[in-house]
Fold these 3 entries.
Entry 1:
Amino acid sequence: MTQPFRLPRGGQIDRERVLRFRFDGREYEGHPGDTLASALLANGVRLVGRSFKYHRPRGIFSAGPEEPSALVQLETGAVTEPNRRATEIGLYDGLRAASQHAWPSLTADFGALVGGIAPLLPAGFYYKTFMQPPALWSRLWEPLLRHMAGLGRAPRLPDPSRYDKHHAHCDVLVVGGGPAGLAAALAAGKSGARVILADSDAAFGGALLRRAYRIGDREGLEWSAATLAELGTMSDVRLMPATTVLGHYDDNYLIATEEVGDRRSAAPKVGLPRQRLWHIRARRVVLATGAQERLLVFADNDRPGIMLASAVETYVKRYAVAPARRAVLFANNDDGYVAAAALDRAGVRVAAIVDPRDAPGLTALRSVEPIPIFAGYAVTATEGRGALRRVWLSPFPAADRSRRGRSIAIPCDLLAVSGGWNPVLHLYAQAQGRLRFDEALTAFVPDGAEAAVRCVGAAAGHFGLGQCLADGATAGAHAALLCGFGTGEAPPMPKVEDEEEAAPGPLSLLGSHHIARRAFVDLHNDVTAADIALAAREGFEAIEHVKRYTTLGMGTDQGKTGNLPGFALLAATIGRSVGETGATTFRPPYVPVAYGLLAGRERGMLADPVRLTPIHDWHVAAGAVFEDVGQWKRPRYYPRSGEDMAAAVRRECLAARDRVALLDASTLGKIEVSGPDAGRFLDRIYINRWQGLPVGQCRYGIMCRDDGMVFDDGVGTRLAQARFFITTTTGNAAAVLDWLEEWLQTEWPDLEVFCTSVTEQWANATLVGPRAREVLATLTPGLALSRADFPFMRMREVEIVGIPARIFRVSFSGELSYEINVPADYGLTLWQRLIAAGEPYGITSYGTEAMHVLRAEKGYIIVGQETDGSVTPTDLGLGGLVARDKECLGRRSLDRRDTARPDRKQLVGLLPENPEEVLPEGAQLVATRDRAPSAASGLDPGMIGHVTSSYFGARIGRSFALALVENGRARDGEIVWVSLLGQVVPARICQPVFYDPEGRRRDG
Amino acid sequence: MLLIPCPWCGPRDEIEFRYGGEAHIARPTDPDALDDRAWAEYLFMRANPKGVFAERWMHSAGCRCWFNLLRDTVSHRILAAYRIGDTPPARDTPS
């Protein structure tokens, strides 16, 4: 018979349809409406996984997101997901799941066989057991632990699923669609406010789904169906089932995940994403997040077959599954009794109810007649290897001598436990809400009212159904009113009589058992009562410390069922109240999230914008190897067949030095600075003078931050009296524009200046080399190009092959060079014409690598390579640029005592003694050969600087480098030592110009 | 994510903005008149209050205007937003 534990009728499942699924390779059947957990229970599967640390057999403990034990590996291959809670996986046809961290198999688990190592894993075992000898850690302990612990396996293939993101705004967001949430949404919706109602469950109703409440003259579920129907008619109400709110951030910004394809099949229908990530900004938030039942702490309280009482109710009523043949209920509160009554009605024999209180509530007692009640007793032990077989009861409290009596054994295959209820306050706490411990409820409850967030119903500690409805309606109407909708008056709610309940029993049953190693407080992390007691003995009293020492409430579970019992145990051990001990921080996300969902569609090509120059296609066709410079793709070099990078770069460099070469410099940052005060403004921004620059002339400039450190450099050109065109480092263009705007807006609003980014408006083909003039002349017959007619640092606006162009005679290579700027759309045409015109001269395209070699041979710096935010113009040997007779950013700081120090790190050249050795950039320099500090001599052979740029110089025929070295200029000619892996290499300090120091070549 | 009331564009998500540190630190008009200590005070020293803080923000993905906020660094509540050059409102936390 299939599904032997399925009840003959009832449940919100579709019995007409059968879904087949596999768990650990065996095939089972279930129905639409089932979760994986309910379907497993219907088939009598009790053992579902092994625990995290001790590999204890575990079953299904809950029926919701609080599940600490039944974590499974869902599906295989690329769509596989570890740590999925069986209680949250909607069953679909063909589902495949497997148990986790059981090796070699669930029933014969190696970890459990060596359960003998458990004494090695006490609280804080990371800090204790594996300390000595160190070698054992990497060879033995770490591999062993990594194999045994861990939670499931991450997929090894890219996730093929699609994930979407959705931004939404609303007046009132109601989180939780139980009675309180439905009432709140209804009240807010009626006022006309924009409302979103989200519930993590695929079905709304909350507690109505598990318990047969009556609301007015209707069944609870009839009321919720009618309420949902009414909400469905409201155009400004969005109902979001299967949507879990994960986090609550500043100003009511909430993140939620909506299961779209997940609940239907492993591979969602074409066109639908698997999940959607919602970003919701709400003006008011009503948290109707309900409450979660707590476990009870006693020895061996983790066996398969031990389950929360509320989960038992859910399986019986919602899924028509009787998770047992013979049950015992262990509850310290009246509410738990409902589970016993529900089992009884479903035909399951309830052998006993165990209650540590002497006087359970009368209504509760009447509801479970004639089940035997053991009041003043506690469950103190359980038996059964793979599944529960028997429980042992003892009088409580055990410390009371008059109570000493014999323990009683009761055979059973289900133990329903109820340790009372915790309001679910994760989101409230994340929204900075304060908590207060309510002694009467034995739970943390919201303290005071956060302005824009309100807890209602069970989340506020109001557990009665009538109270939940009234609470929700009031809060919903009030939230709407605060958004400007309705009158604030709550709509009438149907009448519900809340039953009187007796006070709940103690949170901690300390004394009812030895502080047993196997009395679990946190099933998810395998934290025991003994661990808490040990932490307390070792002096850990602050709750956040105990959490980290014991791992209580850590990981994906975040202490949903076990935290408070753990806090109570600690409080009792150290003689404080739970309120004094306090609660740990609730961290988002509320439940685990797939990385794919957070990434959404921003992966692969869409992960980051890719910027291409107008000439890009030509580079691709020419076989360029590209490198990323910021978001730009720039050709690094153009290898010909048989060439490696070194050979290609050498050929490109020599072409630029000896003949003619062409570089795509379109990525250079370009900003137009215009307005009557543009010159004055640039005078304040650059360390050198700009106001007097004649129209049509170019100037190299350095910008400093106000602390005197180099921020950017580039060439500026005066296009007109009130119009400058400045260039920036490729990767710094946006930062420079921000910088200019910041000073204009915040400090000098009196200046009439406008800054416009024109980086992408202009393509730049840079023609370089001694034959550059001849090549250019073939394309600009009307332009006088002689040294006298078009001198260095001048700009000409001309037409070149019919294209309007600006030609700048500037040089970043030391050679005769023309930077030809044309509107971007003409960039490719210009480039092709230059290549064609240069063919007779042997024109060669070159990339960024050759560009670097050429500029470094000349000692030209690159901001961000030779500088790191701690380098002044003086350090770079460019102190002479600073115009001392005008005020500009950074000038005053150059006179600060530290900045003016003569022995700062300064830019120098380095020639490795071995001319073939190219030093790695970033290599550290030391002053003496012996690296180890000598205590006796007191000498510090410490680091005196580092290599900033290093290449093999094609024209100079040897390796060379630029470096920042302490007091470097005074060390000219000295040997320093370059510290490399396993060796120390000598290099000689020299002037940072390696080629044509007289600058003869720039005019061709 | 803060909801920041840009004085030009209205409330927008924090992700559209760039933070600019403490507000109302005027650049000295005559830096040479300051000794190193006084200059360093301007350059490096910033208040770090627990409570109401006047700070600069820039709507970098919007109007690109700089403006000032009064923000409580404990509760993250924004008490006021005002344009560059405007007098800061009183810092008393409205009840």
Entry 2:
Amino acid sequence: MAPPGDDVVVPVVELRDVSRTFAAGDVSVPALSDVSMKVGQGEYVAVVGPSGSGKSTMLNLVGLLDRPSKGTYLFEGIDTSTLDEGQRAGLRSRRIGFVFQSFHLLAHRTVIENVMLSTIYNGMPRSDRVPSAETSLLRVGLGNRMDFLPTKLSGGERQRVAIARALVTRPALLLADEPTGNLDSTTGGAMLGLFDELRADGLTLIVVTHDSQVSAHADRAIHLRDGRIEVLT
Amino acid sequence: MTGIVMPVNGEEVAPAKMSLRDLAAEAVAGIFARPGRTVLTVLGTVLGIGALVATLGVAKTAGNQIVGRFDELAATSVVVTNEQGFFFGPGGDSRIEIPADAESRLLRLNGVTAAGSFGSVEVGGALVRSVPIPDPLAQTEFQMSVYAASPGLLDAVRGDLATGRWFDWGHSERGDRIVVLGTGAAQRLNITRVDQQPVVFIGDDAYVVIGIVDSVRRQPELLNGLILPEGTARQEYGYTSATTVQIDVEIGAATLIAEQAAVALSPNEPTLLRVQKPPEPQDLRRDVEGDVNALFLVLGGVSLLVGAIGIANVTLVSVLERVGEIGLRRALGAARRHVAGQFLMESTAMGLVGGIIGASLGVLLVVGISAARTWTPVLDPVVPLVAPVVGAVTGLFAGLYPALRAAALEPVEALRSG
């Protein structure tokens, strides 16, 4: 994974002419067309655009949940088309953290169990799991909710559990899909404060949003429209 | 961030790993997430395995019982005959005799409950009559079999006396002129009671009747004859040795006693004696079990199949319900095989638990039925041990299709619909 040259800094994410089309019956619908972009180490990037512009498709591709139909995706310099399914899962478990809009917490497991869920696929030694999960939950300010079931938590608290789960494996890249979409403005603001802190710690963040408040916090915003990058600021 | 980055191939990227223990823990957590449904799912396997175990147990118990009832008499009988006594063997002088103390020799063997020897007595064609009644039309003299018996014979043939008594060693040793009649002989001689010491004549020799044998369970020819004590026969008719020895043994001892009896009676030439022993009880039991098993095993198999379909169905529903969870796990780094493994393990665990509970209930049922029928419960110990394994295998196969369905889900699709 070493960069091929000392003077070149390898971006965490690099898309080269990436397209993704979905087959809907006989027609193929392009969701992303010839998108190229780079996100460097420690950057905080917002992806904005109207519904159906391909934001989520892009996030899934970047998160190795989906494969491009065309083009090349380099993750930390690695050509991801050369990876098999198990290796992609390995990268997801070690290098990438996800925060979903609908949180995706397991309703029958306690908060700390939900957080520890990502450690079982990541090879973390058993003895480290509880301390890591506790640290992660303290980080998001949920030290007093560890043994609660997610159903007893407010929306903002659930979102913070999801963030703690994404952070517990110390990923290189955090992907968030509409992190403030289900939150009121106060808790949404708190979430953005948390993202600022994470970014200050050197985490690379890509956040999909249509909340202008979120994109204002980011270093730059990528505007998508109809599957193409409209503005790259 | 300047310059063109040369792509690196991903050969060295480690695939996702998950320990078996974590997989098991996740499977258990999945099972307990919906305990009510799990219980209902497991019920199918419980019924299937329970039916199988109960069937095998009841069949074996009943088989055992039938054999025990039908063959209790045969299974406890060993008969030694000395046909050789009438012939001369190849050596010319290999004629052997059943010893006079056959009874006490056999009683020393562990497992013998009673033994007695008997043989025909040669009376030189003498006819038998009782005290004559002047009736010119009635026959008063008969050709009858006369036997000499050892005192233990009555018990050995499981005989019952209609009246009077059986003789003992004292009668035999003194050579008392007494006789016991078989019930058939007694009828022909018109003797029904012995309290007035009736007398029968063999030729011209008078013998006091001391008892009448009403029935015997073995050697029924005795019922039509006169039975003298061995000592009396020896003294009066030169009777030499018994030709038949009837041995009554404890259940299960027949095979062993059959081997030992010949040696005990003729240590030098045991092979010259012919020993009749009952057939091995296992053979009979196997036949009975076979009949009972075939039908009920089919029924048990059908219930197990229904149980398997139940597990498959519920696991499939659970896969469809947990699509979101599957997507989440994939996003967190679970490979397809981890997802498949988790669902397979859940269904296998349900099958295993169903098998354990089913086997327990099956055993209880066998005991319950046996208690109600006052039977002895018999169960092959392998059955309750193998039953949970059968349950687990059932669960494994039932979970195969749902698990593959779960693994085939695309994470993106799964996350969207969850």
Entry 3:
Amino acid sequence: MSVRSDVLDQFKLVAQEQDKQLGSLGDDVPLLDLGLDSLGFAIVVSRLEAVLGVDPFSDDEGVSFPVNLGEFVGFYENAVQKRR
Amino acid sequence: MRTPCKSVASLKEAIAVGGIVPRGSLVGAQHRVGLGDFLQGSAIAADVETLRGRSVLIASADPFLTALALIELDGAARRMILFPPDLALEHLPYVMRYAEVDAVVSDGSFLTGASLGTATHSICRPTLVAAKRLHGERLATEWILLTSGTTGRPKMVLHTLASLAGAIDASPSPTPVIWGTFYDIRRYGGLQIFLRAVLTHSSLVMAGPGEPAAGYLQRAGEAGITHISGTPSHWRRALMCPEAECIAPRYVRLSGEIADQAILNSLRSFYPNAAISHAFATTEAGVAFDVRDELSGFPVGTLADAPGVEMKVVDGTLRIRSGRTAKCYLGENPPVLKDAEGFVDTGDALDLRDGRYYFQGRRDGVINVGGLKIHPEEVEAVINRHPRVRLALVKSKKNPITGSLVVADVLLEDFSVPDAEDAGELQRTLKQFCRESLAPHKVPTAIRFVPSLAFSASGKLVRSHG
């Protein structure tokens, strides 16, 4: 499984659980237009920590927050890369 | 020079202070009213005098209307009850009974279908109509704020304008200030910003009901906001919008949740020209202090140095005494708000490391999901109603987006721990069961089945917090 597919899977699963309609999953779609609210994002990030073993949002150095889906996937790919 | 707001008798008098028309405006998603307009106009028109001395519940979908009603009624009503937008109407009879509500001001549709008993009902409108300024006797209006309680019933916290405005410096700013906030003004954090704007004759740009962060940021940017507040969760969400670039604040304020170093650093790099501070305040204890060194936690010296506030740490939690604390709770068998010496126990546990205190979560286990507080007992009571469940333990899991999430350990009726496939099915069932009676942020995001739960010698479920 690639990081990208893990990320997309979690978005789909959480949207389904939260009864939200997920929009298109293109790289340039703004994160806040995907159809998940803050709670939904929080759950995605929590599940990804369990699946991928990383939580790039908790970096104490402060982070440049991802704004679209492509950046979000890249954010996790980098974190997984860094850990290896 | 610092002008204490304690001298301010009512919001309308504060607007009229100085004898000049104040420059600030209240800006909602659809409407705008100048503070000076209140000197000649009214949003409740003919009805303000009929509400004099009454206990008035203010309920509206749009916080903009609540803002107008607060200005109209402060100093005239005996009591104002700020009904929050997300409180279920099933709690309305309880609130009305124990806050002794005998009048309601609404937007005309928010309370449709609700029974108001013998209370009168007036409509607040988003545009002011000409009205004479009346000089009736001014009352010290009580402000009732609603917060979450252990059973789902709201706790009603009684303040006055003096206690709410105790931390506000009312001297005018040399350069115009335009406030923004991600908070709803019916929450303590948002109300602080509303009062700051009105008492200092500044403007406030408010989010509309359900307005997405992106749209709000765009409007705030167009309005030229200079100062903006929100919880760390609000800020994390804002930084994920391209529209975060629409604003260029001089001052960024965080409150309502633990501000971690990650969000402080992210804001620093995103808004390089802003002063950034995180404040500690609770609905009950009031505003205690601001931390301006851009580090999480706060220096030990803050406990002794906060102007106008006495603080101490007893049994690991922060206790506060000041003129900004609430007076008491209203309600059925209201809990005690202050101890015999007048200190409020915030319930926030502190850990001392290298000369700095860090917040460790809540002693009573209250879970803070993006600024919304959840009592684990309320969620446990729901899970425990499911026939397959013997007992549930609900706790907090740290999360970088919302601060915390709700999770649960569940002991099944037959003490079994299901295998992965059955567990998945049962987790889905229990979450659905919770969704039927709980708000989304209260539904456990993860459920773990355990073979046992620990009990203390006194027979209580062992909770480990922090």
